[in-house]
Predict the structure.
Amino acid sequence: MRESLRSALQRAAAMLGAAGIEGAERDARALLAHVMKMDRALINAHLDDPIEPSQSHGLDQAVAMRVNHRPVSHITGMRAFWNHDFLVNADVLDPRPDTETLVALALEGQFDTVLDLGTGSGVLAISLADERPNVRVVASDISERALDVARRNAGRIGVAERIRFVHSDWFDNISGRFDLIVSNPPYIAADEMADLSPDVAKWEPRLALTPEGDGLEAYRRIAARLAGFLNPGGRAMVEIGYRQADSVKTIFTNAGYADISVIRDMNNRDRVVAIG
């Protein structure tokens, strides 16, 4: 007699729980939906259905990867952000819901041109292009592999024709001026890396997590050259670590900017510094 989805789900959750994985039942459900090629919201309606032996084996493999702290998004290859599911892998930062704060803030204003510095998987550039069909976007990254992921996401979501991807170390290979400049740069200090969860430390690219040192170098580099790329009346927005607001504000103040504000995320933590 074949195993039911209910039994498979319970078994997967138990294995994850025994391994100390937080949210074991949630992750088990996501992995089961993945191997079944089923929307996870539909799992409950099919709990008494049988699972094929090949699918049961696939679930065991997925659970084994999760036990090794591989993120669910890396196992399924997808991560939900804003209005779409994005391709993700070990070459890009796994987008967090907190970063949607920056998208929402950007959409409060008008803009025709956007520069996304350090685009990673492309979630900021693509989400903004998707929301504003007439805008033109430049998305840059120092990692060619990250740019490959971003290009694939732009193609899947249907905005590739309006985004130009540039291999660049911050502003180095960028030309022109923009109404809106956004960035979610690496901001974890080197001495904080040891405190990261294994899900992050083992599987996400260090280059996307930390600039080393005190974690603020990306802000210094952006602030130093921002004026040369921002249109008059334009805005810039950078994501920050929740304890970095004062430091980042000081960096931009010292660079000559006066109109600086801090916006909090859904957890009421400082998350975005906006200039202009």
